[in-house]
Fold these 3 entries.
Entry 1:
Amino acid sequence: IMTNADRIQPYAQNPFYWQYKGVPVLLLGGSVEDNLFQIADIEAHLDLLHSIGGNYVRCTMSSRDEGDAWPFARDANTGLYNLEAPGEEYWTRFERFLKLCAARDIVLQIELWDRFDFAREPWQDNPYNPKNNTNYSLEESGLKEAINSHPGAKESAFFRSVPALENNEVILRYQCAQIDELLKRALPYPNVLYCMDNETNESPEWGKYWALYIKAAVWPPRVSTARIRGSGSEQSPRPISARCATSPTRSTSSPAHRTTTCSPSAVGTRPTAPPTPASNTRCSFPTGAIYCSM
């Protein structure tokens, strides 16, 4: 059994360093790809890192390279994605990556969202693009079919869906569902750090929403009972059930996007979270599972 005290967290005696399994640790590492869980030879790559003393990797949850899987299921006949159905291959790769890192005591930093998947050529293949899914239209979602500018131009409404910005629940409910799928796999592991974005210049409200969303998922602190290193069956993490309360339906008469409330405290049946941290401050959460920099 792995207790919360054993999780990766800021070192109690000096927060400029990390603490893992109760002792201070300096994280050192490197990798050949940013979305490391997607590469074919991941086990050999982690073995190499471990053999030379490395103990850290960064991993974006990106899908924009050739051969990558996306997080939603795709209909083989129509070629369209269903944002209600998780993509089996994507999450299988992620689960394997989690297990391989834990077995080698490698700390992995997950980056939930990568803006480069939501503009230019990658956006044309992205399941969230209205032309690529069966769940909403351009008008309903408020998303553009083509975004030719650099992500730094902040043209995509995808990163303004949270309540403090545009409160676009049509998109947000599927974003919540994707993060739920990630958390139910990652939270039992003690060696995971959660970064909200990769190289972003979006509003701090976007990152703040997801930091608090994860915080709500792990509050109150609990002990992980997953078998991480040994053989045998593994216990599945507790379901998060964090779907947004309103389920939009496609309609030609609907507004550009609905504006129903969907906040971390309103979704699912999660326990009440502790007080919200002030903006623009670093925070570590009681479980030690999350460290955010706003």
Note: The CA atoms of residues 72 and 86 lie 4 Å apart.
Entry 2:
Amino acid sequence: VYTDNSVPNFYRVTYGDGVYIATTYMDGEATKIYRSTDGLSWAQVYTTNRGQAIFDIAYGNHVFVAVGEAGQAYVSNDGISWTKATVLNYNGMGLASVTYAAGKFYTVSTNERVASSRNGVNWLEEWSQVSSSIDFADISIGGGRAVAVGYDNLTYDGHIKSAPVPVVNSVTVSPTSATVVQGGTEQLTATVDVSGGAAQTVTWSSSDSSGNVTVDGNGKVSVASNAVPGTYTVTATSTVDSTKSGSATITVVSDIDVYTVTISHLNGGHITATPSVASAGSVISLNIVPDFGKR
């Protein structure tokens, strides 16, 4: 068990990319940030200014983001080096909590304020009611909705408020694999499952750095005649949430290794081959359909 009697109480902890991050909190004191790779041995890596204590910390998309007093956010990619940023014009307000969902960090504050950021540095206000006396204390994102909880700072009545949030659930690409001859093409299709009205658009990319196996904005894969035979990956990534993507495996073969399946001498039915064009070693499926009354 790790203890350090020289610091205020440990208050929050999170985990990501093989790293634990723990923060301290005591009213009126600076916050210290500690880092560990095993949860047993810890090292202090950062200390905030006094009056800028950290209230909460979250991890998402290879980034740690902590928020707290005076509208301050603290951002790190490795848990060692931290950058401080002021969230919008919230420098006189406390940021009560932070969470990561749907490709964004979300934080809440007074007057029903909700702000979001993809990187923890640049923030956008999603919602606020400047005249409201409701201060949000926490927020959760799921099922295509944001649910924030808080209290009225005049009456101390509790409040729960909810609003739709665009969420990308998954991205799939079909077909998931295809064999393409040198100089050939293949059309891929991306299916984006969303909630809350999120855009279903994607960006396409190819793993081929030589530019001989490319994909356009509509998912059409083009293989140059001089492309090196082998396996490549084509990926469709959501434009709303870059953590959601799907991919297909493209196997490029030489045109001399491709065979066309021809079926002839049919009588009393028909037979189809899938695929009708294939490379050596591929499995061909035959679908035999006899005419009515025959078997």
Note: DSSP finds no helices and 28 strands in the chain.
Entry 3:
Amino acid sequence: AYGKRKEEENAIKHYEGAISIRENYPDAHYNLGVIRLARGEMAPAIAAFRSALKFPPHDERARHELVDALIIDGCFGEAMTLEIPAPAICDWPKTDAKVFAVCSIRNGSVDLLPHWLAHYSKLGVDRILIGVFEDVSADIRAQIEECAKKWPLTTFSQRWAGTTESSHEEQRRQGCREAGADEKTWIVHADLDEFPQFPASLAEIIAAAEAQNIRAICGWLLDRVAADGSLPPVRSAPTLFEQFPTPCRLTARILRGGIRKIMLARFGVDVVSGHHFLRDGSTPRIPLGRPEQYVV
């Protein structure tokens, strides 16, 4: 820990030195902000990202990080002003696009799976796809099979040994292809602990997105705890929202993790592993409503 801290301090001195020589050096400001953010030093991190955005080429990464830093610091309103505004909810042309929800399961608890399946079924997705890694235990496979008796899910095989995160992502894409995904299909990129909420139905969200040529939609991670602030084991009933009624920002404020999430994207859109950003670095837009209404 000491060694890492020392490396960070040396890097800070390096970037501050570079900026003292050449103030219009956006990469130095950006890298300085990333280090400050990782150290939980919010004010200097925000200042560094603001400085990075003052100079060409106005890197989208700096805007992403500035929004996240502002939210972590509790400045949600200001953060939202940096997002591209969306039109109000209205009537859009109908869409016939299909929506697939995709999740991968390895070893570990699957207590969330029934809740996850119920949520996505209620959300109105057309297909639910579960990637199952080759080393998943017989007990977990049996639990997945039991869930398949109640919810219409499709499983596909994934390989863990000797592979990378990017290859896991390609395995998920192959699972989508085999299920019939094409360029018109929308994919909900999800983990087992993610329960997205939108300001309108999926059909309305997608129709609005297609009318505006939006190919990816982002939202924000929001954590939930029990009424007393604890994190007890998940029960089969009642719903997760009843078991964990209190929203909070543990990921942002305690773990200092990134909270932007790609919620929906066209099948042809390249989303990086973890589903936080697009491969091309562009900023996803929201098609209607307000940014804070898109919650993961």
Note: Residues 2-21 form the longest helix (20 residues).
